[in-house]
Amino acid sequence: MESKEKIEKMVADWLKMVEELMKESGLPIVPDPKTSDPVWVDVRELRLRYLIPVKRIRKFFEGLAEGKLYVTKCPAKNIYYFPPQADCPACMDENIVWDEISGNGKLLTYTVVNVKPYSFAHHSNYVIAIARMSEGFNILSWMSVDDLSKIHVGMDVKLVVKRREPEGFFTYYLEPA
Amino acid sequence: MGTAAVVGVGHTQFGQRSDMTLAELAWHAIKEALQDAGITQRDVDYVVTSNVGGWSSEPLPAILVNEYSGLGDVGVMRVEAACASGSAAIRAAYNAVASREAEIALAVGVEKMTESPTLQAVELLGRAGNFFWEFEQFGLTFPAYYALYATAYINQYGAKEEDLAAVAVKNHFYGSLNSLAHFQKKISIEDVMSSRYIAWPLKLYDCSPITDGAAAVVIASEDMARKLTDTPVWIRGIGVASDTSNLSRRQNFLGLASTVKAADEAYRKAGIDKTEAVRRLDLAEVHDCFTIAEILAYEDLGFVGRGEGYALAREGETYKGGLIPVNLDGGLKAKGHPIGATGVSMAVEAVKQLRQQNAKARQADIKNGYALTHNVGGTGHYAYVTIYSLNRPTQS
Ligand SMILES: [Zn+2]
Question: Is B368 at the interface with chain A, CB within 8 A?
Fold first, then answer.
């Protein structure tokens, strides 16, 4: 996968070509790069960035900033919720409690993402893993490991809180225990 | 509920269809299906359109397709169940007919994935899980979701990457015999094994492509079906189920629980004992968005026991003439996977197989007159299993 900068330059160059052609013909119609079919290049770009409410699970994020990891739990039915949620559909209630996660678990499965989404193109290949924590619930996250050959299903892992760089937000990672 | 049958099918060429808009593509499938059924737009009482979109420009595809296709003011909606949307459309159309709300209903599946650059399609497909807890923080991709299943499966049962590759080789072989397939070139195990990793252990040739295409089926009531055709293909049972949005909330990664539940329901409705499925079905269309998915399907659908699916692939038992022929149209792998069109495309293939309308080399032997389609949305998030038959259901 090419770097983000390279991709951005390719797109910018192509749009410039479209603009040149439009100047001549008066139409944003160009040959499709793969098939050469004539295609109209959308002149209304759509940009999306979502605003995601976190009010009711704010404690989870406050915990991250303090280096702690929380799970929500229904004390009546003894159900853990991870990712954390403020509602317990099992008893139609909001009577959940916040528990600190032990952080110890076993690796259930993993993958290495070689072809990354564009919004992750600035990261080197990353390991995504799912572990079963000692409390019985599972967590999916990146796994930090210096050597891929050290990872195997069933190994002991631990959860740690770190900043995701270069974005800079706190999140959780699995690591070999 | 009354009975209902498929009486007309249409299917466009799959591939990068930059020569047609979404509406044009859908119309070409609809036109063929109407002509196949011997009806006109005026005979259609209800339309259900499957389209996932996001990568294509039209936000209200269902009504656009109706207008372009001359379907008039008939009722219509768009349905979405990720990659199983097509089967969801068929189920909604079937229910409209079986409940006698409609005499004739049309299910249309259409997807224009290449209206956006590949990068954007990859980005959007990666978001097809739990957006915040999987994509936003951890950059899941569609291959990565299935790779998590592949790693667990390989580790548990000792399958090899070559066994997954065997699925790709088979489906590309049948794709080479299907003139409507996106890829019509045979490949070898070496081709698969030497292709680059996309999400380890899945390689490029383990993955279905980004494809455009459309398919349509006409579903009619029993009385209407009898008037229209001598070979109605009866919808004998549809099973539907789901699984958690977050992959981490699942108990294991060795099979898709939603498929198991949907299959049990479909077999029960069709009067098929699951343990006898391979003897009752003449063929199956299974959801091979990735090679591992086809192997999981063999087990989840009851063709073989747990941990035995990879051996079926390795030994070539899902070619024509084997234990059960699977994906004789090339599957999602070679035919292509235009998300919203896929489930309808599977139905078209099942009907053509039962009517024995395919080129001989990829035509299954029709002995019992039963075909199964298995359509999964996301990573087992949605599952639909449908059983089609030349045999009319017995009156219940
Ligand atoms: Zn509760």
Answer: no
Q: How far is CA A73 from the centre of its chain?
A: 24
* 3-state DSSP of A110-174: EEEECCCCHHHCCCCCEEEEEEEECCCCEEEEEECCCCHHHCCCCCEEEEEEEEECCCCEEEEEE
Query: What CATH number is given for A103-177 in this structure?
Result: 2.40.50.840
Q: Residue A25's pLDDT is what?
A: 94
* Residue B330 domain-assigned (yes or no): no
What average pLDDT does range B350-358 have in this prediction?
Answer: 98
Sequence-distant (6+) residues with CB within 8 A of B64 are B22, B23, B58
Mutation pick from B141, B146, B212 vs chain A, by most beta carbons of A within 10 Å, is B141
Q: Looking at the domain assignment, is residue B371 inside a domain? A: no
Respond yes or no: is residue B83 known to be catalytic. Answer: yes
pLDDT value at position B2?
A: 79
Please indicate, yes or no, whether the overall pTM of this predicted structure exceeds 0.95.
yes
| CATH label of the domain that carries residue B51 | 3.40.47.10
pLDDT score of B339 more than 80: yes
Domain boundaries, chain A: 3-40, 52-100, 103-177
Given A113, A117, A152, which is nearest B123 (Cβ)? A117
Contacts of B147 in chain A (CB under 8 A): 111
Q: Considering the domain boundaries, does residue B243 fall inside one?
A: no
Query: Does the N-terminal peptide bond of residue A166 adopt cis geometry, omega within 30 degrees of 0?
Result: yes
Chain A residues with a Cβ under 8 Å from any Cβ in chain B:
7, 11, 32, 34-35, 37, 39, 42, 52, 82-83, 108-120, 123, 126, 128, 130, 137-142, 152-154, 164, 171
Residue B393, pLDDT score? 83
C-alpha of residue A97 to centroid of ligand 1, in Å: 10
- Check whether A1 has a pLDDT greater than 60: no
Tokens encoding B265: 């329901």
Is residue A139 exposed (0-12), middle (13-18) or buried (19+ Cβ within 10 Å)? buried
What is the tens place of the pLDDT at every residue in B87-123? 999 999 999 999 999 999 999 999 999 999 888 898 8
Q: How far is B339 from chain A (nearest CA, A)?
A: 18
So what's the ipTM on this one? 0.96
pLDDT of A134 higher than 70:
yes
- Give the domain range for residue B98: 4-116+210-228
Please check whether residue B9 lies inside any domain of the structure: yes
A112 CB neighbours in chain B (<8 A) are 197, 199-200
Check: CB of residue B79 under 8 Å from CB of residue B92: yes
* pLDDT one-digit tens code per residue, B192-221: 999 999 999 999 999 999 999 999 999 999
Structure tokens at B234: 């009866």
